[in-house]
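Escalated from tier 1: adenosine monophosphate holo job.
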Amino acid sequence: MDILRSIEASRAACAEFTARGTVGLVPTMGALHDGHLSLVKAARSQNDFVVATVFVNPLQFGQGEDLQNYPRAEAEDAQRLKEGGVDLTLFLNADEMYTSTNVTRITQGELGTALEGAARPGHFDGVLTVVCKLFHITTPARAYFGQKDFQQTVVVRRMVSDLNMPVEIVVCPTCRDPDGLALSSRNAYLSPVERTEGLALIASLLEVQRQFTGGKRTSAALEAAMREVLSQKLTKSPDYAAIIRPTNFSRPLNVEVGDVAVVAAPVGSTRLLDNHVLGDKLGPFSNSL
Ligand code: AMP
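Tier 2 regenerated the structure:
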């Protein structure tokens, strides 16, 4: 596996790949876990070349968020990506990605300001801007994102469609620990007690799925059931616990198969998020790739 750090060298290497076949791109912020590796595995199976990026994107962190403390593990990440069959990893740096004259941003109005965007103003402008830049640097045929960050998958797909970007977005299922906790680099911040508290999120999703399967369709009742589970298990109030229509994040009065239960909550010093597409299978869990 090659490793490159400059944009110019990365562009040249990816141009060579695209001249010879398809590139699958896996964008990450590093501190890799099996969830990231599942994206690599999907990319490996569908493309001639796999390019991974590791870049802690300052633009998507708000003031007072964990940019400085975000876990970094470059050597371990490189090893895991190599073992996963990645051809080229780009460790890009913020000074080159955002020079002092770099002012252009991608923004998405209403979609980018709902839910996570409301809790983290400007977050999705940062995400979309860096994803757009990464697409231009690596020219992928396909790019791989996790269902775990559900809203991100929707806003990225919308950007690709709105701006006619020639890339297919592939969304991979959420990888979980055996007890159901969604894998996240930020789980490293959790103490054992907080980790147990974090299971509230999956418990609320299991409950909403159980009631949905039992025939309950009223959004208010299903959301109340989620909040009830969360209030029993969490120390702090959730940022949101809602059922939304995935196309536009509206809140349906009556819930249908394919609507998405989304939840985000502060646990200890971090924030956890999770989601579940109603009607899909949820558990029993396994973190095998
Ligand atoms: P991050 O490094 O947190 O920016 O994540 C990079 C990519 O990995 C994003 O597309 C995430 O949605 C995806 N990802 C993160 N956690 C998981 C998980 N538990 N299962 C599947 N994909 C994930």
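The domain at 2-172 is CATH 3.40.50.620 (Rossmann fold).
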